[in-house]
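Weekly structure sync, notes
Attendees: PL (lead), two postdocs, one rotation student
Agenda item 3: pending single-chain targets
PL asked that the sequence for the first pending target be pasted directly into the notes so everyone works from the same version. It is reproduced below exactly as submitted, 267 residues in total.
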Amino acid sequence: MAKAPASAWRTIPAEDLLVIDYEGGGRTIVQLAPAFAPVHVANIRALAGAGYWKNASVYRVQDNYVAQWGTNDDKAALPAGVVKRPPAEYTRPARGLAIRPFAYADSYAWKVGHAQGWPVALYRDGTASLTHCYGIVGVGRDLAPDTGMGGELYAVIGHAPRPLDRNIAIVGRVIEGIENLSALPRGTETLGFYKEGTVAKRIAGVALASALPPSERPSFQYMTETSPSFASYIQVRANRKDDFYQVPAGGLDICNAPVPVRRTPAP
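Predicted structure, written out during the meeting:
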């Protein structure tokens, strides 16, 4: 990764970076995935622009599973333009995705690979989805036909819950500050919820990076799957040969091959 040339990296658009600031300090940054859940992501952008999450909270932290945040209020007023019940964006057509195939078998999908900097699962019916790996952000929802409008979000903080694939809209991934969610005390109530009247952490505000002053705007890059550096990265992840790994595994799970992301280097 350190030796990858500048040509191996792609800058993430500022409108795809969701910046979450917490009361008392700390920040989590989420990269959004509009190519996979466009209506949900449009909702999230609108909610952020309207200040919907100001004074919201992280109210659920379930061990080895997820941390969830939002207003936890299904009667909260929604900003203009927000689709209350988006389509079930749990999959999308695989057509149009230039997928770099993964060389190893997957337990939950016909095939897996990487596309546009994301881990992608392919299914025999011609659809594709993102995969529930560590740090992935999805939309909390009630029972169908509810799809969740994007006001309640969760991040995976434990072992990859891949059975959630194709059952929930995945809208992004945490690319910085996951510790501000994963290191919180676990909720003591059912499913990791906090006791009524208490929360894990309060949210001071949420904004798109594109809405911040240029001097305060974070910038990130991901390693493109089309680069030789990415191919080398996958090969090394599957066949470690350092002093500790005496026997290379010779295999790799898609969730153990997170796409490298870095802060954009100073010019």
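Discussion points:
- The mean pLDDT is 96.
- The CA atoms of residues 35 and 92 lie 9 Å apart.
Action: rotation student to compare against the earlier draft before next sync.
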